[in-house]
Amino acid sequence: MLIRSVRSFARSFSRKNHNQVGIIGVPFDKGQRKGGVELAPDTLKQAGLINELTTLGLDVKDYGNVEYEVSDVSVDNMSQLGHVSGCTKKLSETAQRVFEDGRNVLTIGGDHSIAKKNVAILWIDAHADLNTNKTSESGNVHGMPVALLTSELADYWPYLPGMDWQQPMLSIRNVAYIGLRSVDKYERLVIEKFGITAFGMEDVERYGIHDVIHMALRRIDPDNNKSLHVSFDIDSLDPLEAPSTGTPVRGGLSLREGIHAMEELHRTQRLNAMDLVEVNPTIGDKKDVDLTISAAFHIIQAGFGYTRRGLKLPEGITDMPLQTFR
């Protein structure tokens, strides 16, 4: 879910402690029609997510799951808008609390309808999520968040009751897609019309994930001074890596590519917020669910500092006594 508080995110960037993380659970499934994705926050926590992050030396605070009131609003071809507007407003308020506490934010969805000024966003996803209520074939809001976020597309929307608090302050020039392979005709038109930075799977295959990440950063953050936000849809990974998700598309990122992308973004020291969305523990058998949860853990850990080369010793320790190896 990526409709957050732009002002609080940018304001907090200069005073972040990168060892402090706040987790927000968003058990939300109203942006699409497949139930089960709302179970993901608790499922990931019960599987040991917080412990996995604390072993990295992080100070982790769980801000609980978002609870909200349903707004009595509706707009043509925007399913469950009352739920979406209520949930995103509450999420924005909770995210602001986390930022004001000086913590980086990890948002666990939920579907991708939950989703800032000097901010750059990397949208790692099989889908572009660029539809409006006029172009969407399904009316599912999880296919609309980028179009809702960006100022250049504001004129393509009708008045959205219940969403007055959310202003599209983000420029589409500050968004980069990685891993696209299922893009609607209208979405492709918008990408080409506005010159949006978009790397599909054919680009990943041509250049490799390492170069794609850095090409994307050079486009959306040429001066290396923006706060970075990653919205990672688990369906960006190939279904063989993460089968328990609602809209799988074959031919996606390998888990190794996903991990490397997050490692590189962590190394910038400017990654201040991350969404992990669309894990659905009701899809597939236990093996499928375990595989998907494991993949999600690897992606999150890489974003928050785990390196496959091994963790560094605590500060002040420069040598190991010989008896350690005996």
TrEMBL record:
Database matches in InterPro entries: Arginase, Ureohydrolase, Ureohydrolase_dom_sf, Ureohydrolase_Mn_BS
Required cofactor names: Mn(2+)
Family matches, as Pfam families: Arginase (PF00491)
PROSITE patterns, alphabetized: ARGINASE_1, ARGINASE_2
Protein name as annotated: Arginase
Family membership noted in the UniProt record: Belongs to the arginase family.
UniProt: Mn(2+) binding residues: H112, D125, H127, D129, D233, D235
Pathway info: Nitrogen metabolism; urea cycle; L-ornithine and urea from L-arginine: step 1/1
CC per GO annotation: cytosol; nucleus
Details of cofactor binding: Binds 2 manganese ions per subunit.
Gene Ontology annotations of biological process type: arginine metabolic process; urea cycle
Keywords: Arginine metabolism, Hydrolase, Manganese, Metal-binding, Urea cycle
GO molecular function: arginase activity; manganese ion binding
Entry EC no(s): 3.5.3.1
EC class name: hydrolase
The reaction(s) this protein catalyses: L-arginine + H2O = urea + L-ornithine
Source species of the chain: Trichogramma brassicae
